[in-house]
Amino acid sequence: MDAPTTTSADNGISGEGGGWFTPHKPVSPPNPEPAAPTAAAPEAGAPEARTAEPAAPKPGASHPMAPQPEASHPTAPQHEAPEPSTPRPAAPRPAPSPDAQLIQRTMAEIGPIADKVTSYFYALLFVNHPHLRGMFPASMDTQRDRLLKALLTAAEHIDNKQVLVTYLQHLGRGHRKYGTHAEHYPAVGEALLGALSHYATDSWNAETEAAWVRAYTTISQVMIDAAAEDERKSPPWWYAEVVSHDQRTPDIAVVTVRPDQPYPFLAGQYTSLETPWWPRIWRHYSFASAPRTDGLLSFHVKAVPAGWVSNALVHRARPGDTLRLGPPAGTMTVDHTTENGMLCLGGGTGIAPIKALIEDVAEHGERRPVEVFYGARSDHDLYDIDTMLRLQQSHPWLAVRPVVDRLDRHHVQLPDAVRDYGPWNEYDAYLSGPPGMIRNGIDALLGAGIPSERIRHDEFEELVAAAH
After folding, report:
1. Is the pLDDT of residue 283 over 60?
2. Which of 144, 205, 368, 438 is the most buried (most CB within 10 A)?
3. For residues 341 and 9, what is the distance between their CA atoms, to the nearest angstrom?
4. Do 61 and 41 meet the contact criterion of CB atoms below 8 Å apart?
5. How far apart are CA 56 and CA 371, in angstroms?
6. Cα dihedral sign for 12, 17, 20, 24?
């Protein structure tokens, strides 16, 4: 990848003065509302801790320029949960900046016609820059709004620098695997402004356009700078040979691969995988172990209905096949500077990174208490319980508690079990699993007295919500 020749927009946080993205009136497509092909960004920490994917095709996962939450962490402004006996009023929210107010007006206007805006966006992009069409997967008809939605979401939260800069830096590094270069970003920005100006007719004016230019300049420049820095120390992707395929259940497999060169990562992180059967389509999966001396990497994959990548990995992959790996991402890692206990909630295949965290604690020789709640909808979904129980037998500081969400009079859900086993005042919390489980788990943990800054997970949407 050619090194970016642009300069940083100030310190990588403010887009003012960046100057490299100069919008111009795009060439209109033949049809004012064309049914152009569309793409989607890679999924943001898919259900089951980035191991399950919504129904395919979800080809946008291979989009070369779409911001995608490949890594995020509770870096948003946090607040301690108030003591029950001394409630405190919530801190007043700062007023949105003038640019944020203008952007939010545009968002409100285009919300009801998002499909039209999306189609027009892609039509502009491919008509004005047809060479970019080859960077997208052939089929782009499912969840087509993810690219534009990601851009709009980042712009809408442009005031939340602490969350967005970390998020965008990870995106910039991750986008190297798509062959994205600095010169691609202006093309996307032009299509974005063209689509917004075409449909946001009531709110669009020179002042609004300038606000969007500044926002997009900030977004893209942070990504470009992060990619340039990463290029100096790592490849854009790794090839990895499948060395074992363990079919645990009819729809869950443990896939182990050997990278073609050293692959540095931390327990609790995740990566993106591309299979040879669906080129340019990537999905996120958590590492199921701490770094190993033999360099092997394992992933827990659950096949979902019509999921292209997950079904290929579960039902088609065999030893000898070659996959591609993106860079490691995510910050749901162990803080070895503290002696706090660890409270881990893993749902379904979300138990994979929890297992990696346990191994990491053991390898560091720590004896801090680690409490694991392994949530599942049925006994069948406790596919890795034997492994977890063996770890419990080997480490006296570890407790593993399976929680099956039974639909009977003994009905107990994971958040209820967590509350029942408290208190957790001296614990850091780690959550991995479906988004619904993470949301409910966060509510339960906050209610149990764990401050939000000690709750770790890798769901960007959750971070944005928490920060506001």
Report:
1. yes
2. 438
3. 41
4. yes
5. 36
6. positive
Is residue 226 within 8 A of residue 233, CB to CB? The reply is no
End-to-end, the C-alpha distance of the chain in Å comes to 37
Owner of token pair 């497999």:
253
d(CA 26, CA 186): 12
Question: Taken in order 452, 455, 461, 463, is the CA torsion positive or negative?
Answer: positive
Confidence (pTM): 0.71
Give the whole-angstrom CA distance, residue 241 versus residue 259.
6
Q: Please, are residues 342 and 371 in contact by the beta-carbon 8 Å criterion?
A: yes
Number of H-type helices and E-type strands within the chain: 13, 11
Residue 78 has pLDDT above 70, yes or no: no
CA distances from 268 to 114, 164, 394 (A): 35, 21, 20
Look up residue 36 and give its two tokens: 């152009």
Between 12 and 351, the higher pLDDT residue: 351
Other residues' Cβ atoms within 10 Å of the Cβ of residue 82: 12
Q: Which helix (H) or strand (E) holds 343?
A: strand 341-347
DSSP 317-329: --TT-EEEE---B
